[in-house]
Q: What sequence folds into this?
C-alpha cells in the first residue's frame, strides 16, 4: 500500500501543483483556440477538462470556420462580378481612367492624314 507520508513530501506537492497549473493552462489554450476558430469554446473547454490532451489536439485539427465563411463570401462576390460581366482588369470602365477621345493626345483624328 502507498505510504501517506510520501504524499506530504515537498517534491510530490510541487509536481502536483505544477500539474494543476499545466492542466489549467492547457484548458485556457484549448478554449482560446476554439474561440479563435469560431467553434463553441464552452464544449471544447468541457472536453479539455475531461480529456486534456485529446481535446487540445482535436481543436488544433479542426478547420477554421471564420476563414471558411470569409472564403465563401469572397467566392460569392467573385461569382456575382463574373455574372454581371464586369472585367476586373479593364480600366476603360473605371471613371478615373476613362478619358474622352478628343483629349487623348495618342489618338489622332480620323481626317488628320
A:
Amino acid at each position: 500500500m502507498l505510504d501517506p507520508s510520501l504524499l506530504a513530501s515537498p517534491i510530490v506537492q510541487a509536481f502536483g501543483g505544477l500539474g494543476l497549473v499545466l492542466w489549467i493552462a492547457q484548458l485556457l489554450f484549448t478554449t482560446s483556440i476554439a474561440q479563435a476558430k469560431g467553434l463553441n469554446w464552452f464544449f471544447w473547454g468541457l472536453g479539455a477538462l475531461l480529456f486534456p490532451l485529446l481535446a487540445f489536439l482535436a481543436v488544433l485539427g479542426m478547420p477554421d470556420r471564420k476563414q471558411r465563411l470569409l472564403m465563401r463570401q469572397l467566392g460569392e462576390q467573385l461569382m456575382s462580378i463574373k455574372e454581371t460581366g464586369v472585367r476586373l482588369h479593364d480600366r476603360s470602365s473605371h471613371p478615373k481612367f476613362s478619358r474622352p477621345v478628343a483629349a487623348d493626345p495618342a489618338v489622332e483624328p480620323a481626317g488628320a492624314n
Notes: Helices lie at 4-7, 10-36, 41-50, 52-61, 65-84. The CA atoms of residues 13 and 57 lie 28 Å apart. The radius of gyration is 32 Å. The mean pLDDT is 78.
